[in-house]
Amino acid sequence: DAMVIQNPRYQVTQFGKPVTLSCSQTLNHNVMYWYQQKSSQAPKLLFHYYDKDFNNEADTPDNFQSRRPNTSFCFLDIRSPGLGDAAMYLCATSLFQGTQYFGPGTRLTVL
Amino acid sequence: RKEVEQDPGPFNVPEGATVAFNCTYSNSASQSFFWYRQDCRKEPKLLMSVYSSGNEDGRFTAQLNRASQYISLLIRDSKLSDSATYLCVVAYTGGFKTIFGAGTRLFVKA
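Structure tokens for the assembled complex are given below, as produced in the milestone run.
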């Protein structure tokens, strides 16, 4: 089945230690998104790729970076995780401005 | 003021009840509207898009009021399996800028 896959499902890192979260998709969608969702809060859009074009939200901290080496994969890099970065990180894809399909998320813990 | 606001609930209703949620948005440039469902510790999943003329999908009815800048979701004949958080989503021009509401929690009890 076509799907959005995120790895790992759970990630534990130390304060200040860089971490990379992975997202892959078999839907062949041209747009990929990264969201941050904290407990009982709305998912917050961090950035998205439209094909190879990177679009950063204005309030996304510089600590968060992203890479999209090809259509299928997109990575979220957190350069120096702080305690406040502990959250669920959701990857989503869409075909142009269509419906967004979410992966199961990666739950990040920062010690 | 948040761009998309929802009553967090929780709404506690018995099986078979009808329940309605509202969501208000502040940016009149908003163009697309959706309801997503999110189960505990799971990812959001699209429940339905919301069209200007209103739309229905089985027990679920969504409506849009552009003049008052709100959308609504009506659930008829509630099932236990409807228990979840319902997220209101607004997309702006181009469709990539999407703002989620914090969600309304629904508990359906036997």
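The interface with chain A takes residues 4, 8, 32, 34, 41-46, 49, 87, 91, 94-103 of chain B (CB under 8 Å). Chain B has a mean pLDDT of 92. Further analysis is deferred to the final report.
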